[in-house]
Amino acid sequence: MAVLMQAFYWDCPKEDNQEHNWWNFVSEHVEALGKSGFNALWLPPVSKGASNTSMGYDPYDYFDLGDFDQKGGTKTWYGNKAELKALIDKAHENNIGCYADMVINHNSGADEEEVNPLDGKKRWTKFNPKSGEFPRDWNHYHPSRYEQFMVEGENFAGFPHLCHRNPEVYAAMYKYARMLIEELGFEGFRFDFVKGFGAWMIGMLSKYRYVKDGAEFSPYVVGEYWSGAEDIDQWLDKVNSVTDTQIAAFDFPLRYKLKDVCDLPNYDLRNLTDGGSVLMKRPAHAATFVENHDMGDSTIVNDKLMAYSFIMVHEGYPSIFWYDYYNNGLGRPGTPNGIDALIQAHHKNAGGDSQILHADPDLYIMQRIGWQDEKTSQPGLIYVLNNLGDQWSGTSVKTKWANQKFVPIAWDGHDDAHPDERTTDADGRAEFPAPPRGYAVYVPA
Question: Start and end of every Glycosyl hydrolase family 13 catalytic domain (predicted)?
Answer without folding.
Answer: 2-346
